[in-house]
Structures are given as C-alpha cells and as structure tokens.
Amino acid sequence: MSDPSPDNLQLTGTGRLRNFIGIEGLPRHILEEILDTAASFVDVGDRAIKKVPLLRGKTVFNLFFEPSTRTRTTFELAAKRLSADVLNMDIARSSTSKGESLMDMLRNLEAMSADMFIVRHGDSGAADYIARHATPDVAIINAGDGRHAHPTQAMLDMYTIRHYKGGFAGLKVAIIGDILHSRVARSQIRALTLLGAEEVRVVAPRTLLPADIESMGAIVCTRLEDGLRDADVVIALRLQKERMDSALLPSESEFFRLYGLTSERLLATHPDAIVMHPGPINRGVEIASEVADGERSVILHQVTFGIAVRMAVMSMCMSGRETERDDSQTQGRSNATTR
Ligand code: CP
C-alpha cells in the first residue's frame, strides 16, 4: 500500500469533508463541526422511530477485512439511522477467497451504484489507497487501517471527553498501554492536540512506544504514576497481541503489575477524572474489572456516542460531495454562457 498522506483527498475545493481517512490534514473547525453535528444526532437513538432521512436512497458498503464488534455495528446502525441502504460484506465468504483482487471487488461494488465504502483493513494506508484508486463518486471512510489511524474512534472519544469535561482547554489526558501498535492512540493524539488539550501524555514501557511519538506532541511517561498524576482523562488501550511479532513484554501479568489500571492507582488522578477504553478490553491485563465497571468508567457511553459521531461523519461526507457536485454544475453552466 502507498504511504498514507491524506492531504486534500479529504476536503472539497471549498473545504468541506468528502472522505474521512485520518485526522492529519484536517483543520480544527472540521473536527468541531463533526462534534457539533454528532450532538444534533445523539437524541435520534431515543426516539420512537430512530431515523432521519439524510442518506435516504444512498448505498453504503461495510468492508471489514479485520474483525470488529463496535465499529462495524455502530457504522451499520449509523447508516440505518440516516435511512441509507447498508450492505455488510462477509469478506471471508466473498470472491476475494477465490483470488479476486481488492480493486476488482471494489469495481464490482461501484457498478452497483455504491455511494460510500466503510473500510477496515490490516494494512496501514489501505483507506488512503482506496480513496486514490476507487471512483471519486464513492466516499471512503476509514474504520481503522493497520497501525496508522482510526479517526472515527478518535472523534467519538473526543465527543465523550467534551461531553464530560465541557471542552479541551486545560485538560491533561493520559493514554496508557500499547501505543506502538495503536492506530487509536495516533488518531487520539492528533485530535487532542488540534482541539487544544493542555497535555497529552503517553504511558508505556519503551518497547511499546513508537520512535516518532514525541514529534507528535505527546509527553512520554514510562512510569504509570507520572502519567496518572492529576490527569483529567485516563484512556487505557488494549495490548494488541495479534500485532506483536517479537517479545516486547516479559508477560501480561508483569504488564498489569507495572501499568494495569486499578482503583488504587486512580487515586493519583484528578478526583473527577473519567476512565475510557476504545474496546475490546483485556480485563486484568491493561485494566482491572473494578475500574472498567466502576463509577468513573464511561466506556459504554463511548460506544453509544459512536453512533452519533459516525452519523455525523457519513452525513458530512455526503453533503460535502453534493455541494461539490452542485458547484461544478453551476461552474459548467457559467462557463457555457460566457463562451
Ligand atoms: N474500538 C474498536 O475499534 O472496536 P472494534 O474492533 O470492536 O470495532
């Protein structure tokens, strides 16, 4: 796959969202627009008829080449709440198992008048690659690519933080665990920095930190007590054993002894600190059950907010594209009359 570099693939000529590949390259006001738009959708889930018509007549394909519980189902629910037709491709049972290439599969879905591909893939840069090679008529949303980015997860995390903390100014956020393999951490750090958090701390042993972490604006803490001190928001991350190809840790129990989030350790944080986790959780590895299920945990609220945030991203991409089409038709008519 090509090196991920989303730049203006994500924005129309007038600066509106058209694809959502990563946080990098986006201006702060787009992130704020996603949060504000999501706020307008949150109550749709409480209505008797949980639907708005914004994507009526649109066709959305969920293309998950890696397993998922939360992201796939909340994208499906989000699309359905926007009144789109949604198809969940069963990749393992698709003709990719007979040797069909990714691009040939996409060409066939494009021929079915697809409007949007939601893509999760194990390769960093997969969503970027598809956005560059698929027909420009289809919106591409990254649902997690390798270690690179998981931008809708980061935005639902930002929504949750803003909901509980009122904003980002003055906030100290500690992200704890397997930063090295985490696309979520990369997207969170970029979003928190752009939205104005005071401190973004990453807390992990050196073996689980990427080499470029400080250049992203994060403060590195290799001792958990340093990372937790006075933190307003604590985000635990899963140890991604499936992406570890060498012995980066002595053992899971040793990791929990040094970095596991327990009630006792949370005493070092701000008294109103919230605890987050993108899921899936490894109980007793990065977080104790008493914390995951405790009164400071907002983990399940993150999942609920994820539906509204994904509705926001999908509807913004579609309306950005509609405006782009209208603008180009107006430009075409104006060129024709001045000829
Ligand atoms: N947070 C997250 O991406 O979870 P899933 O892998 O279950 O989608």
Automatic annotation (TrEMBL):
<keyword id="KW-0665">Pyrimidine biosynthesis</keyword>
<dbReference type="InterPro" id="IPR002082">
    <property type="entry name" value="Asp_carbamoyltransf"/>
</dbReference>
<dbReference type="InterPro" id="IPR036901">
    <property type="entry name" value="Asp/Orn_carbamoylTrfase_sf"/>
</dbReference>
<feature type="binding site">
    <location>
        <position position="280"/>
    </location>
    <ligand>
        <name>carbamoyl phosphate</name>
    </ligand>
</feature>
<comment type="function">
    <text>Catalyzes the condensation of carbamoyl phosphate and aspartate to form carbamoyl aspartate and inorganic phosphate, the committed step in the de novo pyrimidine nucleotide biosynthesis pathway.</text>
</comment>
<protein>
    <recommendedName>
        <fullName>Aspartate carbamoyltransferase</fullName>
        <ecNumber>2.1.3.2</ecNumber>
    </recommendedName>
</protein>
<feature type="binding site">
    <location>
        <position position="279"/>
    </location>
    <ligand>
        <name>carbamoyl phosphate</name>
    </ligand>
</feature>
<feature type="binding site">
    <location>
        <position position="150"/>
    </location>
    <ligand>
        <name>carbamoyl phosphate</name>
    </ligand>
</feature>
<feature type="binding site">
    <location>
        <position position="238"/>
    </location>
    <ligand>
        <name>L-aspartate</name>
    </ligand>
</feature>
<feature type="binding site">
    <location>
        <position position="183"/>
    </location>
    <ligand>
        <name>L-aspartate</name>
    </ligand>
</feature>
<dbReference type="InterPro" id="IPR006130">
    <property type="entry name" value="Asp/Orn_carbamoylTrfase"/>
</dbReference>
<feature type="domain" description="Aspartate/ornithine carbamoyltransferase carbamoyl-P binding">
    <location>
        <begin position="18"/>
        <end position="162"/>
    </location>
</feature>
<feature type="binding site">
    <location>
        <position position="153"/>
    </location>
    <ligand>
        <name>carbamoyl phosphate</name>
    </ligand>
</feature>
<dbReference type="GO" id="GO:0004070">
    <property type="term" value="F:aspartate carbamoyltransferase activity"/>
</dbReference>
<feature type="binding site">
    <location>
        <position position="98"/>
    </location>
    <ligand>
        <name>L-aspartate</name>
    </ligand>
</feature>
<dbReference type="Pfam" id="PF02729">
    <property type="entry name" value="OTCace_N"/>
</dbReference>
<feature type="domain" description="Aspartate/ornithine carbamoyltransferase Asp/Orn-binding">
    <location>
        <begin position="170"/>
        <end position="316"/>
    </location>
</feature>
<feature type="binding site">
    <location>
        <position position="120"/>
    </location>
    <ligand>
        <name>carbamoyl phosphate</name>
    </ligand>
</feature>
<feature type="region of interest" description="Disordered">
    <location>
        <begin position="320"/>
        <end position="339"/>
    </location>
</feature>
<dbReference type="InterPro" id="IPR006132">
    <property type="entry name" value="Asp/Orn_carbamoyltranf_P-bd"/>
</dbReference>
<feature type="compositionally biased region" description="Polar residues">
    <location>
        <begin position="329"/>
        <end position="339"/>
    </location>
</feature>
<dbReference type="Pfam" id="PF00185">
    <property type="entry name" value="OTCace"/>
</dbReference>
<feature type="binding site">
    <location>
        <position position="71"/>
    </location>
    <ligand>
        <name>carbamoyl phosphate</name>
    </ligand>
</feature>
<comment type="pathway">
    <text>Pyrimidine metabolism; UMP biosynthesis via de novo pathway; (S)-dihydroorotate from bicarbonate: step 2/3.</text>
</comment>
<feature type="binding site">
    <location>
        <position position="70"/>
    </location>
    <ligand>
        <name>carbamoyl phosphate</name>
    </ligand>
</feature>
<comment type="subunit">
    <text>Heterododecamer (2C3:3R2) of six catalytic PyrB chains organized as two trimers (C3), and six regulatory PyrI chains organized as three dimers (R2).</text>
</comment>
<comment type="similarity">
    <text>Belongs to the aspartate/ornithine carbamoyltransferase superfamily. ATCase family.</text>
</comment>
<keyword id="KW-0808">Transferase</keyword>
<dbReference type="InterPro" id="IPR006131">
    <property type="entry name" value="Asp_carbamoyltransf_Asp/Orn-bd"/>
</dbReference>
